Design the sequence.
């Protein structure tokens, strides 16, 4: 069973489907009408009939026509990869914003498939006022109602986007940089999040265990504090409907001071998963951190699940880590290497710091204490009125200090 087939089975089980069979169908030339060739259609049809299968999942994008024809041929419900991922997201969404995003993505997907979704499209019915005028077909009514609902959802999400922007602005006034965890689904982000923040966020060996973003305080070895954000997992061929709907949530990643890319070092397709994640990050606008598939200064790779590697694979990973400075090998399950990740985050924040000369009135004890707590004081000279400081501060802390003091 290939890794891709295992992933498809995992996606099905993520919504508690009982998987009775999994097959790889070789396609030399996709058929516009059914994707699969007639021989494959008949062979799979026999398996479906023998096992009394009610739902068939095709791990590929299907056109509405292909989906309808497969359902007719197999006499079973057919769901493609996009539909399956939407089902999972719909089952996992917990927050109001998460449910809005999933519904928007699902309706955008459904709108293109109304030709398949209804069996009564030939019928005409009279108007019911807001439901449509005389002679309007059921298909036209359904499309219009979905369009109206999509417009309303977009307005609601725009409101949540403004709220989230205000929250980010408020965080900028608090002395904490933001570190975002990203990665392929089931790479171990939530387990690492719990390990680093001593939290109890839901984490499990399943695809898309995390959907709604979570934030907690992160204590770093230097004494600095940061905010750690756990985000939704990415996946190959992530539906464009979902990327668009979740853009407001994923903007948390674009606003982060540091992005930690959590990778499953034990997975056979770890490199391909890495490329999928970097492609989504680039689509979100993180071009400074992803350039031609390469990791730039704003991103740290956390090679997770090293406890599952055999000794030879661990030696190979360690050698690779020496060549790739932004990479840390660790196990979120056992804690091995997690301190090294915290140190790497600390170093990255320190490297982004700037040296400033500040004049702070001696009467402003709170600001002086804040500077000593948040920065590295390299030198100080006092006179009767002020403390003249040479301080190393991060860009984020400089902005926060300007807010406190309105520095020029």
Sequence:
């Amino acid at each position: 069973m290939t890794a891709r087939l295992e992933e498809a089975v995992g996606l099905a089980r993520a919504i508690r489907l009982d998987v009775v069979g999994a097959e790889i169908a070789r396609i030399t030339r996709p058929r516009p009408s059914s994707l699969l060739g007639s021989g494959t259609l008949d062979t799979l049809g026999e398996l479906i009939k023998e096992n009394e299968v009610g739902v068939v999942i095709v791990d590929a994008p299907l056109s509405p026509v292909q989906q309808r024809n497969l359902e007719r041929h197999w006499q079973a419900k057919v769901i493609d990869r996009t539909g399956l991922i939407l089902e999972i997201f719909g089952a996992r969404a917990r927050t109001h914003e998460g449910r809005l995003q999933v519904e928007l993505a699902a309706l955008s997907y459904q709108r293109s498939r109304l030709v398949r979704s209804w069996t009564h499209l030939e019928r005409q019915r009279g108007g019911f006022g807001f439901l449509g005028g005389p002679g309007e077909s059921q298909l036209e009514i359904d499309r219009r109602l979905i369009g109206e609902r999509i417009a309303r959802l977009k307005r609601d999400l725009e409101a949540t986007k403004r709220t989230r922007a205000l929250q980010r602005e408020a965080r900028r006034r608090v002395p904490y940089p933001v570190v975002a965890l990203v990665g392929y689904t089931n790479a171990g982000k939530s387990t690492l999040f719990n390990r680093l923040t001593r939290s109890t966020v839901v984490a499990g060996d399943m695809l898309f265990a995390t959907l709604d973003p979570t934030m907690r305080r992160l204590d770093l070895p230097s004494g600095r504090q940061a905010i750690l954000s756990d985000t939704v997992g990415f996946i190959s061929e992530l539906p464009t409907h979902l990327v668009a709907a979740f853009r407001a949530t994923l903007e948390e990643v674009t606003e982060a001071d540091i992005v930690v890319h959590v990778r499953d070092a034990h997975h056979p397709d770890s490199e391909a998963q890495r490329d999928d994640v970097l492609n989504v990050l680039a689509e979100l606008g993180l071009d400074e951190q992803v350039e031609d598939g390469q990791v730039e200064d704003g991103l740290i790779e956390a090679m997770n699940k090293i406890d599952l590697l055999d000794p030879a694979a661990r030696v190979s990973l360690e050698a690779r880590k020496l060549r790739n400075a932004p990479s840390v090998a660790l196990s979120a399950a056992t804690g091995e290497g997690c301190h090294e990740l915290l140190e790497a985050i600390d170093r990255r924040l320190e490297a982004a710091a700037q040296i400033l000369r500040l004049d702070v009135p001696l009467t402003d004890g709170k600001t002086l204490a804040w500077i000593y707590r948040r920065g590295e004081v390299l030198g100080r000279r006092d006179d009767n009125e002020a403390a003249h400081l040479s301080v190393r501060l991060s860009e984020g802390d400089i902005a926060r200090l300007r807010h406190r003091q309105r520095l020029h």
